[in-house]
Protein 1
Amino acid sequence: MIESRQVQAVVEKFRVAGTCRSTQPLGNGHINDTQLVVLEDSGAEIRCVLQRINRHIFQQPEAMMDNIRRVTTHLAARTSGEPDACRRCLTLIPARDGRCFHQDVTGDIWRMYDHIPGGCSMEVVGSTAEAFEAAKAVGRFQRLLADLPSPRLHETLPDFHHTPKRFAALEQAVAIDGAGRGCHARAEIEFAFARRSLTGALLAAGLPERIVHNDTKLNNLLFDADSGEALCVVDLDTVMPGLAPLDFGDLVRTAACPAREDERDLSQVELQIDWFEALARGYLSEAGQFLTVAEKAHLVCAGKLITLETGIRFLTDYLSGDTYFKVQREGQNLDRCRTQFKLVASIERQEPAMQRLIDITP
Ligand code: ADP
Ligand code: GN1
Ligand code: MG
């Protein structure tokens, strides 16, 4: 939580005019602290997004912010002149010292963005049209970044989607059982261990490295609240070199299933094949232009793998005492793991049909 009395002092470090009138938490992210800040300047209202970056996770903030600065600048240049351009990518507000973040005396790292007006994020999709829009926005994001000039972006979180290493971390957490919770998660541990041989599937495929988002879950997209059109991909902390199919995969994980990530009624957790089909059409309408045959052939695999990987990460964190993902209640990480594993099982059952849909989508 960010305390409201902190906000004015931090905001003053950025190149934004006005007096802070109100602040409120924004979104449901698991990692950073995000606030909507409303300022008033000579009677005009200015809305900004203030974020305190999780410094335990992001230990190279300068490199991370350098990636974000380059990516947002490039996206702005590539979309300038388009209708509604200022709502189509994030705009950083620089700090008064010219850097794109501020470090306070305690060492906390802060950054600010313009607030995108009329944008809203969702936790679950409600229609095939929304699924299509979400995936189109992700494909477009990748397409626009395909010609980002060198040098290579910093790899700020090495091995972020190295599923075998995530699996090894789970094995270690099971062996240590630091929070004494292993006895509550026997079935989940068994489910994960039975899928060890899957974990290397994508790394072994020799897919090309691209600039990807690496965290394209549904609530990292903003939609126009009136038209339902997907406006913008947010949460750029993990923009790095990576594998394009995994960005599609994270949408399969979060936008092809009607259940929330921590839903306890597992009967609601099923992959909806028509939503998946809409995701495939939306994504390929943009990414089809540059994907290789091998990348396209691994889209379904990526959906299954990132869902398994995310479940493994939630389970590892549950067993380790909830030190990584924010939780609002005890057992929430285990609930999150259960939805992921139920969805993996659902994908496994529907994999041939999913693959056929990919094969026939232009
Ligand atoms: P976290 O890293 O904690 O997930 P995000 O960057 O995803 O933080 O931001 C949390 C939520 O805040 C997003 O899901 C989105 O709803 C909202 N949000 C973030 N940036 C903006 C913005 N510039 N304009 C409007 N809403 C935003
Ligand atoms: C985290 O920050 P947020 O909530 O968008 C996590 C992702 C996970 C996701 C699971 C840096 O994303 O990798 O897939 O939770 N981000 C980081 O919901 O670890
Ligand atoms: Mg987020």
Note: The chain has two domains: 4-117, 128-360.
Protein 2
Amino acid sequence: MLTEYRNIFDSHAHYDDEKFDDDRENLLTSLFDNGVCAIVNCGSDLKSSKRSMALSEKYENIYFAAGVHPHEADEMGESDFDEIRELLKHPKCVAIGEIGLDYHYDFSPRDIQKQVFEYQLKLAKEFDMPVVIHDREAHQDTWELLKKYQPKGVVHCFSGSVEMARDILSIGMHIGLGGAVTFKNAKTPVAVAAAVPSERLLIETDCPYMAPVPHRGTRNDSSLIPCTAEVIASVRGTTAQEILNLTAENAKKLFFNK
Ligand code: NI
């Protein structure tokens, strides 16, 4: 535990994942005793959105996003979306997510991915809620839809170029950075980390995945966020605590409207 840090706002986590089944309760309690101030747990389908809601009801500082990930787009029926709509009314539901396009795995056909993504962008307008965007190797199509709907929200685990980051920023959205900025070959994420204005940066784990160096390949959790903050701080010429402070403030504004 890197206990010297505080104000750690993990804007994207999956603590409902089975990889946390053995020690979830102890881990989460220790996180909140060691500098983590809030966590947004993101759904990827109806079941995980419900599990995220349950976590938010159990832990004061866990909030959640409900939504359908592109991998699961194919499996969704109309009644599932009715249930997602109900989840969005929950007092601790702070975003629609994670939603978007994934052309790396293509687990769902692309036309269905796009339909489900677009439907949820419309939901974001209807409910006036931020979105949490997943974009993997689908930058052009993701951008087309974001440009069309101009939601508030964040492109999480941002993997695009500095040019694409500028597009995202130009419509008022945030950029979420995680463990990938610490990886050895991370030229583009580092360039993005240097270019994003302070008021648009969020920090995240995407745990249990994407553990930052020197923990790469192990199970990730929010206590490792300072490793990511240290790298972002070094390219921006500031301190890791300052990065934690400003990303926490940005996340509160975006998700809690304060
Ligand atoms: Ni995720």
Note: The longest strand covers residues 93-102.
Protein 3
Amino acid sequence: MYTIGDYLLDRLSELGITEIFGVPGDYNLQFLDKIMANKNLKWVGNANELNAAYMADGYARTRKAAALVTTFGVGELSAMNGIAGSFAENVPVVEIIGSPQSGVQDTRKLVHHTLGDGEFSHFEKMHQAVTAATAHLTKENAPAEIDRVLNTLLETRKPVYLNLPIDVAESPASKPSGELSGLTELTSEDQNLLQEIESAFLEAKQPVVMAGHELASFGLEKSIQKLIEKTQLPVTTLSLGKGVIDETMLSFIGTYSGALSEPSVQNFVDQADLLLLLGVKLSDSVTGTFSQGFSEQNVIALNVDGVSVYGKVTQNHHFEPLIKALADLEVTPYQGDYPSKGSTSTSFIGTDDDATLTQKSYWQAMDAFFQPGDTLIAEQGTSFFGIAPLFLKTGTKFIGQPLWGSIGFTFPAALGSQIANPDSRHILAIGDGSLQLTAQELGVALREKLTPIIFVLNNDGYTVERQIHGAEQSYNDIPMWHYKQLPDCFGGNSNAFQAYQVRTEKELLAAMKEARSDPSRLYWIEVMLEKMDAPEYLQKLGKLFTKQNS
Ligand code: R1T
Ligand code: MG
């Protein structure tokens, strides 16, 4: 019998999803049977629901949609931090909650995973703040509600929530008819706006395009690339949204971060007479704490949730078709200068064989190590600040989470992205403190035979926090783990992984060489660095924070 559960799974396949993440529970087991029986889908069970949500997020950033299944209450609340991160950064994740039988919910029975008050809507309500749409599925409303919610996911590229009582999943349904779809038509307001943008470009002497993370949420990288290639307009990104544009292009001027940018880039952007912000959010940690020097008088900003023209908010726009239409604008190719960007790549050969690694030499070595087509993932500690100013190579996918900034996110996210795109070598840079939050997922990485290269930066604690406040306070210390031994403990063997601990430039370069030449195993490289050493960019940010808070 074709059921509502099958209907939902077929719709997920239509979104390009081939793996589903999560943790079983007695309220979702029968639904999981449907996943096991579905030839287009594979179940990837996680160590816990938070990790499942992070992994789904990483998968969705690369595949453009992901799904996770948790059980009612205990499972979904653990996943909620991850879902909130997906919401904040526009990552399309479908969260499916297996909930008690409809009859049990209707009669308010005192069952497990409830707060003991007979109320079954608490958790659904909590999720309303962190999802673009929620639905409580019934035998009657299920197909229509599933389609409504999934269409909202396509329109907003934000997570959505489906509460699926076990008996509803088992109820009969007909196969889907018609296709899911986002907002693909230009509105008349969009047409007017496009004309306004066209004339603004005709008048502008020093225009700049800033490409943001929302473009990646919609898979619009190619559209924006086309616009820049055609017009040669100077283009930048924030570190939130890094990787959206090919950073080897002549017209890519470097990553902008307010007062922390290269001075030539900062001046160029701040003095632009027209700034076109595409899917950009100017959050504190990516603007050197709001130190951007341009004014909204010069800004046209197109976002998923609204458009602002020189500070005036305008309504009724459809982001996706609007961005696609930009490439067709009649804009005279840019003839002006670009700011100098200094050296855009490093070939690191090591200064002295036995030189101990520093943050500086480590990031130089990393820069030289990255190759076109890699997927780079940087955790919200010194790792993010190390990668942010680098120029990425062609075809690089970059994943970070600087807006939501939940530490531990990147480890499962890197694995999820690797599952979504096994052909790209995934390279994760993560701190010891962050890894301790989600390290259990190493078991899943080894079981699934994933082959990322993981750099675990061991600097004996929360260095990024030490830079901000409490350098010597013990709250910034963490237990010292035997990091190199973790893959062994989590079930790996020499066919599945290779582990190193490196202290010197020579050791790092040797481990990198080995890792690059062997795409068949997971590489686990523990990098020993000084407690207080930090990338220059972070040291400057730490000073800015201190100044603001004193
Ligand atoms: N808890 C969660 C879930 N997310 C956070 N961002 C924080 C706490 C605060 C926090 C940071 S950075 C950081 C913490 C605890 C320490 C990261 O340490 P690490 O991973 O060892 O990195 P490194 O030593 O290389 O800097 C805020 C600033 O985002
Ligand atoms: Mg650390």
Note: The first helix runs from residue 4 to 14.
